Amino acid sequence: MTDLGLLDHIRKLLLRNKCQYDDMLKASKESRAALQRVLHLGQASGKPGEIYYPLQLKRTEKPVPGDHEVLVQLKAAALNHRDLFVRQHQYPAISLDHPMLSDGYGVITEVGRDVSNKSQLGENVLLTPMRGWISDPAGPEDPQKWSITGSTRLYDVGTAQDYVCVHKDEVVPAPKHLSATEGAALPLVGLTAWRALVTKAAVQPGQNVLITGIGGGVALSALQFGVAMGANVFVTSGSQEKLLRARDLGALGGAIYKLETWEADIRRQLPPSRPFIDAVIDGAGGDIVVKAVKLLKPGGVIVQYGMTVSPKMNWPMPAVLLNAELKGTTMGFRKEFRDMVAFVDREGIRPVISRVVQGLSNLKDIDGIFDDMKAGRQMGKLVIKMEEPSSPKI
């Protein structure tokens, strides 16, 4: 074979190999396009509270909606404090295999055969963040089947994935003024705050409301909702910066809860015409009742939606003599969720966002927003935008 013949032979081999490579690359891309990313928890050992499950990403087949289901392509998802507790195994019925997170905003891309409202196709929606609580104002119809979605053995539903199939009644049209990240920041904290303020505390315009621990998602939602309802809202925080931000959002006053006599600081800021607190919205527990009875009106209400400081609280005699009421609350049911979203839509409320991570595959930065939550650095919601960042053009 001549040198020219040899070169021509090599050129043909290279061209054939390139074609084969291109075909393989195309097939690989098509195969990956038929799969979806799912963020879940990895294996780890240790005691509850000491363990910290790692984040893992897997690929699964894109789901197909059942007869009464819709397929939602998720655009953004958000963290809640529950997700941190799940990683620390401080929450019941944890699943390491099921998708994480309960807050999500997306677009309906397919509908099941028996979904009569075909106009839902292309609609931006919020996902209900719970299952097993349909219509009873008192509590879940069957507590054994009630759960927040994400990383739970009870339901294979979570928002930390590209696509999710849910029953058609488990989505609500997203307020049009919200972006994808703002929409994802709303569901769980908005529902919890709404039930605490409306169903439990029955807050009315002109009443004084104390919201503790401003900076977290529920507290901020309660602040925004309370202000929109016409209440006088006062807050506590461990940070002066967060108190100033709360004032920007409409709070009339606030105090640093790290100070021993923070309740006296709140009392000095109350209006002379109404020198007491009508309702306290609290998610920390600890000594809140001891402090609150010094501010509450007779028959005033403390609504407890969490106990992040301690699983126990004191109920002192002054609370009894004040005829104070302590009401526990957890999230809410489907109608409350729809009412809350309608209120946000009507009032033009935008959830407060602390930080957004770009890309579901960006595990390093997703771990970073979990670190923000652990350290209490956030002022608002921590959100994941599903789409990966664009590669810089060379």
From TrEMBL:
Give GO MF terms, alphabetically: oxidoreductase activity
Q: Which InterPro entries does the protein's record reference?
A: ADH-like_C, ADH-like_N, ER, GroES-like_sf, NAD(P)-bd_dom_sf, Zinc_ADH-like
SUPFAM superfamilies, from UniProt?
GroES-like (SSF50129), NAD(P)-binding Rossmann-fold domains (SSF51735)
Q: Where does the source fall among the domains of life?
A: Eukaryota
Segments forming domain Enoyl reductase (ER)? 46-384
Protein name according to UniProt: Alcohol dehydrogenase
Q: What organism is this sequence from? A: Gibberella moniliformis (strain M3125 / FGSC 7600) (Maize ear and stalk rot fungus)
